[in-house]
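Sequence in, structure out. First:
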Amino acid sequence: MSIRAVVWDVDDTLFDYTTADREGMRSYLTAEGLIDRFGTAEQALIRWREVTDQQWARFSAGGITFEDQRRDRVRVFLDREMTDAEADDFFVRYRTHYEAAWALFPDVLPVLEVLAASHRHAVLSNSSIHVQDHKLRVLGVHDRFEVILCAAELGVSKPEAGAFLAACEALSLPAHQVAYVGDHPEIDGRGAADAGLLSVWIDRYGGTATVEVPAGRHRIATLAELPAILGSDTRFGAQSTFG
């Protein structure tokens, strides 16, 4: 059965989150005079990402709301007591610098153009619709997706099968006719495969090149490789370039 739709992750798949996060944080800390508190901008970013991962794990486990995980990221990062309003204000100021660094990866628009006539497109993100809807509009690709689904509103997050199946249901397609493209080998790659979708893991930075890709999944280094995988039903044995 051919693949009829592609469901996309956003951060570090379509959107260069790693670069925007790094440059946005560096710019913000410089403007606020906070770099010395962390030693260097690089050390500050390492700490920010550690705290982000910790708080995101709490949110994914269902213990806190999306807004609370964001506020707690600020409190832990700055190591201070803050009201919700104070933590929100931090994000408003930080977001100005962060958004100034937003960009799509250069391979995104070409592949969306190539696949526009042959496949339907949707988004499934572990963020919130408020965040990703705005981001996709700013990046100029919002209208390329029929459906935009996010964990905060779904009540279930990747790698749970329910998140991927919700995207399939929104497209009115069975899982075996849908591909999922994401940057995380477990959250995206394993999760999509376990839910019955064609799983395509984009390993942009090659840092996990030694990770073995199980049968039924695909690893690509650039989205330019995606059309060849989607061109025929490769779920049952044919390998991709990195398969």
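Second:
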Amino acid sequence: MPDFAHDEATARRALDVIDQLLAARNEMASGVGGVGFLREHQAVAPVAWSWWMLISDSARVVAEAAKNGNGFVVAPVMRNLMTHAVAMAWLIDGGGAAVQAVDAYSDDQLLKLITNAKRAGWDVEGDEVEAKVRAAVDERTAYPDLEVVRLTNEIRNTADLMAAFGEQEGYLPYRHLSSYSHTTRETAQLYSIPPGLAAGNCATSPGRAA
């Protein structure tokens, strides 16, 4: 991405794109009768639409925070936005198999949550949802669809997802934003300046340039 840098010009370009994105989203979502999908796209379109709405809502939150000088606070939202933007392309490319992969990945995550709930002492034994999900997982395991398996492995990890679409360079800002999404040195220094370091030389944080 040679045309982009960590500067005010790039921040303004990004905010302009977000404004255009939101305008297009509002125009599409303002229909009185709601949004309909062609029959041939019934499997993929609802997922794509929901992700598009999440992307645009996330972009709105990021833009509002950045314009107020608080862009660094929404670093996790920026990461989520980036993941779903690439996942949109992944979904369209994968079609029905990608939708199945989303279900497979979601089932795995739900079972992990149930396991964590049990470890925490929650009474979730005999839960109908768990039984249904485990049955679905068992069926996938017994009759694996190799394309669904491949796509499931891609959607599990953002680095793999971006690499699948030749966006390795795009993973760099995502990785950088991770520093502001966890309990790191970067977040520990956001509101303080180490002794002897001039304010103008402090490491920049996401959203500051806006």
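Remark: Residues 36 and 42 are 9 Å apart (CA to CA).
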